[in-house]
Amino acid sequence: MKKMILSALALLLIPFMATACGMGEQSPDGYENATVSHAHEHWQQGAASPIPFEFIDVRTVEEFKAGHIQGAHLIPVQVLADHLADVPKDKQVYVYCHSGKRSARAAKLLADKGFKNIENMVGGIEAWKSANYPVVKK
After folding, report:
1. Coil, helix or strand for 76?
2. Is the dihedral of CA 109, 112, 115, 116 positive or negative?
3. Could you list the active site residues?
4. In whole angstroms, what is the distance from residue 79 CA to residue 132 CA?
5. Do 111 and 118 meet the contact criterion of CB atoms below 8 Å apart?
6. How far apart are CA 123 and CA 100, in angstroms?
7. CB atoms < 10 A from the CB of 31, how many?
8. Domains plus CATH for the chain?
9. Residue 6: half-sphere exposure toward Cβ, Cα within 13 Å
10. What tens digit of pLDDT does each residue of 37-86 get?
11. How far apart, in whole angstroms, are the C-alpha atoms of residue 110 and residue 114?
């Protein structure tokens, strides 16, 4: 009986899990500011995460090649408006750059275009590396 109640509760919560995690500070521009530790926790869950997610690196190709979060997709902020179809609307999307400024611009653009599950990773890849989280070079 207990398992049935927990299963029913989990099914009722699924629609809420597809929205922003709700762990970060909500910006007035319609996206959340996520700490690097929160983003890393989600990243560590990988495909086992109950909330599907994607990391989008909005830096330049050269910056991306110098080191990025494994599994991240590169869409430089300069061309993001032309590649909105490449950003999933059905996943939690973490955007990051070097320090958080370009990714905040990217998060605002996405929120303005109707994306609901956007999180700006505060501090960018520099905060990620400072926390000794892994990066890959391409």
Report:
1. coil
2. positive
3. 97
4. 30
5. yes
6. 5
7. 28
8. 19-130 (3.40.250.10)
9. 3
10. 999 999 999 999 999 999 999 999 999 999 999 999 999 999 999 999 99
11. 7
